[in-house]
Amino acid sequence: VTVVEALSRLLPLPSVDEDCSKILQREMKKRKIEFMVNKTVDRVEDHKKKLRVTLGPSPFLDKPSIRDKEPLVREVDKVLVCIGREPNTNGIGLEDLGVKRDEKGWILADEGMHTNISGVYAIGDVLGPSKVMLAHIASSEGMVAAENAMGEKRTINYDVAPGAIFTTPEIANVGLTEEQAKSRGYGVRSDSVLFRNLGKAQVLGEIEGQAKIISDMETGKILGVHLVGAHATDLIAEATLALQMGCTVKALAETIHPHPTLAEVMMETSFKAVGKSLHG
Ligand SMILES: Cc1cc2nc3c(=O)[nH]c(=O)nc-3n(C[C@H](O)[C@H](O)[C@H](O)COP(=O)(O)OP(=O)(O)OC[C@H]3O[C@@H](n4cnc5c(N)ncnc54)[C@H](O)[C@@H]3O)c2cc1C
């Protein structure tokens, strides 16, 4: 398997911590998966019983070197294209109603899911990548829209919207990355603990990965949590509650966690963030 990525790292999403991308790439490499970053597929041709794929430099490269520009050819059995989503909002009467969309056609809605037209709500993927295109977010937005349509005043908080990526190892995140927190003016603290320090990870034989907590240096408030490792997509629920409740690293560290569990990684990382590192 060869993964071709136009940007400079795997999962180059603003919400995904760079360390998570690196650890995923390292673990996938161990499984003999090859990576071509800063490259795009220029051409796919039938060649005998195979497909001949020609790779060129990424259009996102500022100044491609001569080496970057050299075409690379791979012969493969199958090609799986998994990029690109576009809105399907033409011809369903939005123009007649005057519902505002952006230049690409994604519907514009506020955090109460109201469009610019009273009584018309929009939720889910149709809001586009400036919001969060995930199933559980669409579902929560749907509940907010339904309650507001019945006269409530609910809003959705995208700052505590968890993301889950079902790779091996899994990746999950909630809240801000270090860069995002800095750009919002926080004095940022970042603490990480490796899964290999957990008894449960050793028992499971799944020791790859780490937890990272981004916190506000001044108040200790948790601003973001980034997990890569076994069951990360389940573990992120605790972090999401912590962010939703405005929890500090001290409060999370002092929360008793059952042993031996993977969830202890949250407690261990929080202890580190208050300068009382236990096992990692
Ligand atoms: C390959 C893939 C993997 C994914 N994995 C995950 C994941 O692991 N976790 C996660 O949270 N999210 C995942 N997502 C994203 C998730 O599927 C979407 O965020 C979610 O389905 C959005 O829900 P939605 O209701 O907005 O849109 P959709 O689920 O797309 O529903 C829209 C529906 O409207 C219908 N429709 C379109 N036009 C009309 C029309 N004119 N009239 C009537 N009906 C119409 C469509 O047929 C469709 O059934 C994944 C997406 C993809 C593509």
Describe this structure in words.
By secondary structure, this protein is α+β, with helices and mostly antiparallel strands. Helix content is about 25%, strand content about 20%. It has nine helices and ten strands. The protein has a five-stranded antiparallel beta sheet, sandwiched between helices. It has a three-stranded antiparallel beta sheet with strand order 3-4-5, with no helix packed on it. The chain has a two-stranded parallel ribbon with strand order 1-2. A hairpin with a 2-residue loop joins strand 3 and strand 4. It is flat, with a radius of gyration of 22 Å. The protein starts with a strand and ends in a 7-residue tail after the last helix. The mean pLDDT is about 95. It binds flavin-adenine dinucleotide. Flavin-adenine dinucleotide binds next to helix 4. The site of flavin-adenine dinucleotide (FAD) has 12 residues, from helix 4.
Number of strands: 10
Order of helices and strands: EHEEEHEHHEEHEHEEHHH
Q: Helix fraction? A: 25-40%
- Whole-number mean pLDDT: 96
**Shape, principal axes of CA atoms:** flat
Uncertain residue ranges: none
> Bound compounds, please?
flavin-adenine dinucleotide
> How many individual helices?
9
Q: Name the beta content range.
A: 15-25%
Distance from first to last alpha carbon: 34 Å
For the sheet with most strands, the description reads: 5 strands, antiparallel
Given helix and strand content, the structural type is alpha+beta
Radius of gyration: 22 Å
Strand order of the largest sheet: 6-7-10-9-8
